[in-house]
């Protein structure tokens, strides 16, 4: 089938489904179906039957607003590629702010030996941190066994399995410190806002990793109570924040004897990565 006809049809379908950048997404889907790069796609004029079938199935899924990452099965994060599944949040560029904040707070690459990632999901935060600190080992904890298994797969995929372990457990209750670094991207969306999320998020991503309760702060209360027992004396915790949550989470941390030393903004200018240490 002619490539131009496939793309024209796909753009029409995606636009009707409410996909904003329909042209770009159509090309990305076709690249995935053909297992080629965008440059290679430019030189194709006809698409064989098998890739056409694969593309058609993927197009139906995307028109139903299933996230692109769940269709392709992977997502880029930091310098890594990680596998994803509906058991985990899809890694987002905003979360890379936590790695940037960590590198700014602990620039000496030999200074970090142990890292804990609470609510690890795909393992992207822990694995990105381990890729930057070659002497460190890390532990990721997630309440969902399927997430822990996927994170372990991602460690193997990125050649970090010898320095990373993942377990299923209830937040910080499953482990004891001390750790040089604690990372966490907890659920922080207010419960009443959940119904307003984009269909890709609301219908496909796990609500347990999104819903932060009535005020969005339930997970932070538990985290801040646990952090003093998890952090090494000169350690740091870096927590991902939702929009406008920096002050509230800082107060929760200070009530547990922690000190805010930095809060890094994401590319959208939102305070996203809160860095905490002992007072």
UniProtKB/TrEMBL annotation:
Enzyme class: transferase
Any Pfam family the entry gives: PrmC_N
One biological process term in Gene Ontology: methylation
Signal peptide: none
Sorted UniProt keywords: Methyltransferase, S-adenosyl-L-methionine, Transferase
Residues that bind substrate: 185-188
Database matches in InterPro entries: DNA_methylase_N6_adenine_CS, HemK-like, N5-glutamine_MTase, PrmC_N, RF_methyltr_PrmC, SAM-dependent_MTases_sf, Small_mtfrase_dom
Domain Release factor glutamine methyltransferase N-terminal, chain residue ranges per copy: 5-73
MF annotations from Gene Ontology: peptide chain release factor N(5)-glutamine methyltransferase activity
Keyword Magnesium listed: no
Ranges of residues in domain Methyltransferase small: 102-193
Highest taxon listed in the record's lineage: Bacteria
Residues binding S-adenosyl-L-methionine: 119-123, 142, 171, 185
Catalyzed reactions per annotation: L-glutaminyl-[peptide chain release factor] + S-adenosyl-L-methionine = N(5)-methyl-L-glutaminyl-[peptide chain release factor] + S-adenosyl-L-homocysteine + H(+)
Known EC number: 2.1.1.297
UniProt similarity note: Belongs to the protein N5-glutamine methyltransferase family. PrmC subfamily.
Role of this protein: Methylates the class 1 translation termination release factors RF1/PrfA and RF2/PrfB on the glutamine residue of the universally conserved GGQ motif.
PANTHER family documented for this protein: HEMK METHYLTRANSFERASE, MTRF1L RELEASE FACTOR GLUTAMINE METHYLTRANSFERASE
Name of the featured protein: Release factor glutamine methyltransferase
Originating organism: Bombella pollinis
């Amino acid at each position: 089938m002619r490539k131009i006809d496939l793309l024209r049809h796909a753009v029409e379908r995606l636009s009707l489904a409410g996909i904003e950048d329909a042209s770009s997404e159509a090309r990305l889907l076709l690249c995935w179906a053909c297992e080629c790069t965008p440059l290679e796609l430019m030189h194709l004029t006809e698409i064989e039957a098998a890739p056409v079938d694969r593309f058609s199935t993927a197009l139906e899924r995307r028109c139903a607003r299933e996230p692109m990452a769940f269709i392709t099965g992977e997502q880029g994060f930091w310098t890594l590629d990680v596998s994803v599944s509906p058991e985990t949040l899809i890694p987002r560029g905003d979360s890379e702010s936590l790695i940037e904040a960590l590198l700014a707070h602990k620039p000496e690459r030999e200074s970090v030996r142990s890292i804990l990632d609470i609510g690890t999901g795909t393992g992207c935060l822990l694995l990105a941190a381990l890729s930057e600190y070659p002497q460190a080992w890390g532990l990721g904890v997630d309440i969902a066994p399927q997430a822990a298994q996927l994170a372990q797969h991602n460690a193997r995929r990125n050649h970090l399995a010898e320095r990373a372990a993942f377990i299923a457990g209830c937040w910080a209750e499953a482990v004891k410190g001390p750790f040089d670094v604690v990372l966490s991207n907890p659920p922080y969306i207010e419960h009443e806002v959940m119904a307003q999320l984009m269909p890709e998020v609301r219908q496909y991503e796990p609500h347990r990793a999104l819903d932060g309760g009535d005020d969005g702060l339930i997970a932070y209360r538990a985290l801040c109570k646990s952090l003093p027992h998890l952090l090494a004396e000169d350690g740091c915790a870096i927590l991902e924040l939702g929009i406008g949550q920096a002050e509230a989470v800082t107060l929760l941390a200070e009530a547990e004897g922690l000190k805010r030393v930095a809060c890094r903004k994401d590319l959208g200018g939102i305070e996203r990565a809160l860095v905490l240490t002992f007072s």
